[in-house]
Design goal:
The complex is a heterodimer of chains A (about 300) and B (about 350).
Chain A: H1 2-10, H2 12-43, H3 50-66, H4 74-97, H5 102-124, E1 137-140, E2 145-148, H6 149-171, H7 173-183, H8 185-190, H9 195-217, H10 228-242, H11 247-268, H12 273-299
Antiparallel strand pairs in A: 1-2
Chain B: H1 3-28, H2 33-52, H3 64-80, H4 85-90, H5 102-131, H6 136-155, E1 166-167, H7 178-202, H8 204-214, H9 216-221, H10 226-252, E2 254-255, H11 257-261, H12 267-278, H13 284-303, H14 308-322, H15 326-335, H16 342-352
Antiparallel strand pairs in B: 1-2
Classes of the chains: A mainly alpha (about 300), B mainly alpha (about 350).
């Protein structure tokens, strides 16, 4: 661990490498987190199956590549398929837990997550998968810093998708209805907005975002049937830090997390990277609580 | 308590019958001995989860942490009393150099279970003062994170076998059927858990737990030392979970850091399912839930092999969405007389209206 720190000190470009890698993967985290924030804000449900939606999108891209189809074509297909899945899940299950104690919806979506990961494990196997993009890398500082081109491509597409989503929510009629329902469901319903349909649409839209993010990410990062939960935890952490419904905040928190993770992975060793993510979650929540406690004391 | 009328008179008879059944079960069905031991441990898991979840309203997704701590603590004590733990795990516990005779094995097991309970309690004390200040879903997801982080950390410590796990000591052949011993230990633990919790919930402490569940701020305003009560309850639950983990580790023999010890997506969520399926917030509920769950699990393993975990996931979703009151809760609203709240009546009236 100390030796890794020394390496970092002696070769500063390495830090640049870690920084870049963190920022690039941060865009994928940001999309999943933005979707989670959307569902959380509108339906007051924390979707634990978030990471499984991402993985499912990734497996759709892998399946496309396996059959010789262009992997980018998988993105809209994954989004559409996940939209359908999200819609069905909402109408059959989630609708019953809306408005109930949050523990109930956490458990229900955790159950959905378990079903999905087990099904993915059965269908696609338990191995690490990735889509071979065939793109090259850029090298800087005599090869000390390398940028994988496909990661940059994924980054750009994720950002575009995020901006499109923000525009949809901000400008379109449907987006207005979603925001109105988030703010005051009863008033929205009195004004003729079909809130149940808005809830269903929001949940399905979130699934579609995750699906697209996963289909994109599979081109640059390995996906695994049982590693969805870490994406869920990352999304949750990002939303806790950045708040609900704030794309710039979500994006910067996500990239911050990406950078922190890539540094931690280097310094502690990659076998501790997942432990770091979950440990950071605990730290973030404890810190948030401590700050809330202080605010409460000042109020008194 | 109106429901006490239904069970009250026959309760002692029921308990005596159940203890008798527990004592005789492995002799009646020797082929299912390990499943029965597992069932008894599941009862402890579900009861301990429900003390903090159903009774106190703090729904933890990370109680598996204490099970895992107990498993490892016990295994380390069982080995460490007689051999060097690092060399034992390096040799994968096998070979001829790490033999345990009968007194060694038994003292190891006894101390192991004790230390497991203490260690789990200490961990709960340490974490509880941080984590139990959180509420609702923040608590739920934080504990989920704790459970999984613990597994990842354990997988990175070579001294306890790292990612390739650790074996509990090989029971000496002279001891005969160790499974039977573990069964009766599990039975003893399950009875102790049930008795302790029955007593706890009949005291002021039990009332305080329910008060925290129903309205923590009011309980606080009434002068209850809510934080201390919460931590105490968590530590008590953790001690029983740790002891159960110690026995569980010896039952399965092989401790994998993420698949058996800190298995958040299996045992960790199963214990919630058991409590909920039986009826959380009741004493009988988790016991009933564990029995029904174990039946489901064995049926799935027998008839849906390969798809059993999918089926269990479906069961979790089904219970969380359609059956959150559980069997005991259902029986109460269906058969319990004179205890329908006004809300229930209003809901029933609303249902009848076209």
């Amino acid at each position: 661990m100390v030796s890794n720190l020394l390496i970092l000190y002696e070769a500063p470009p390495l830090a640049l490498q870690l920084l870049l890698d963190g920022i690039l993967i941060g865009a994928v985290f940001a999309l999943a987190a933005y979707g989670m924030a959307l569902v959380w804000g509108v339906t007051n449900i924390i979707n634990i199956a978030q990471g499984e939606f991402v993985m499912l999108g990734g497996f759709i891209a892998v399946a496309f590549a396996d059959h010789g189809l262009p992997p980018l074509f998988a993105v809209p297909v994954a989004a559409a398929a996940l939209y359908g899945l999200g819609w069905v899940l909402f109408q059959t299950l989630i609708v019953h837990v809306i408005g109930r104690d949050m523990f109930n919806s956490v458990l229900a979506t955790f159950g959905i997550a378990i079903v999905l990961q087990q099904l993915m494990g059965r269908v696609f196997g338990g191995a690490d998968r990735i889509v071979e993009s065939g793109l090259g890398t850029w090298s800087f500082f005599d090869g000390l810093v390398t940028v994988v081109q496909v990661k940059v491509l994924v980054f750009v597409y994720c950002l575009l998708l995020g901006v499109a989503l923000a525009l949809f929510l901000g400008r379109s009629r449907q987006g207005q209805a979603i925001r109105a329902t988030a703010q005051e469901p009863r008033a929205a319903s009195a004004l003729g907005i079909k809130t149940r349909q808005i809830y269903a649409m929001t949940y399905a839209l979130n699934a579609a975002i995750c699906g697209a993010a996963g289909a994109l990410a599979a081109n640059a990062y390995t996906i695994h049937a049982y590693s969805g939960l870490s994406y869920t935890i990352r999304s949750f952490m990002i939303v806790v830090v950045a708040g609900v419904g704030n794309l710039a905040g979500v994006a910067s928190a996500a990239m911050g997390l990406g950078v922190a993770e890539s540094f931690a992975g280097f310094i502690l060793g990659t076998q501790y990277q997942i432990a770091f993510v979950f440990g950071l979650l605990v730290a973030v929540l404890v810190f948030r609580n401590w700050r809330l406690g202080r605010q409460r004391r000042t109020l008194q | 308590m109106p429901h006490a009328k239904i069970f009250g008179s026959s309760r002692s008879l029921l308990v005596a019958g159940l203890i008798g059944l527990g004592l005789l079960a492995p002799l009646v069905a020797p082929g299912h001995q390990s499943q029965l031991t597992e069932l008894l441990l599941f009862i402890v898991f579900a009861l301990a989860w429900d003390l903090v979840g159903g009774q106190m309203g703090y729904n933890s997704f990370g109680n598996v942490l204490f099970v895992g701590v107990g498993m490892y603590a016990s295994a380390i004590v069982q080995v460490g009393l007689f051999y060097d733990v690092g060399r034992y795990t390096e040799a994968k516990g096998g070979g001829t150099q790490f033999l345990f005779d009968v007194p060694q094995f038994l003292t190891g097991l006894g101390f192991g279970i004790l230390v497991a309970a203490i260690m789990a309690g200490l961990v709960a004390l340490l974490l509880g003062s941080l984590v139990l200040r959180m509420r609702g879903h923040y608590f739920a997801i934080c504990t989920l994170g704790l459970g999984i982080a613990a597994g990842q950390v354990a997988a990175g410590i070579p001294w306890i076998g790292g990612g390739s796990g650790m074996l509990t000591p090989n029971p000496p052949a002279a001891l005969g059927d160790v499974g039977l011993l573990l069964y009766y230990l599990a039975l003893l633990l399950a009875l102790a858990t049930f008795a302790t919790f029955t007593w706890l919930l009949s005291t002021r402490f039990g009332l305080a737990l329910n008060a925290i569940r129903d309205d923590e701020d009011k309980a606080d305003a009434m002068g209850l030392a809510t934080h201390g009560i919460k931590v105490t309850a968590w530590v008590i639950a953790a001690c029983f979970l740790g002891a159960a983990g110690a026995i569980y580790g010896n039952l399965v023999r092989f401790i994998d850091p993420t698949q058996t010890a800190f298995a958040g997506a299996t045992i960790g969520v199963w214990m919630i399912l058991m409590a909920l399926l039986g009826g959380s917030g009741t004493l009988l509920g988790p016991v009933v839930g564990a029995v029904v769950f174990q039946l489901f699990k064995e049926l799935f393993w027998t008839y849906l092999l390969g798809w059993q975990r999918v089926a269990l996931g479906v069961l979790i979703v089904a219970v969380a969405v359609f059956f959150p009151d559980g069997i005991v809760g259902f029986a109460r609203t269906r058969f319990g007389r004179g205890q329908r709240s006004e809300e229930d009546t209003a809901a029933a009236l609303k249902e009848k209206a076209p």
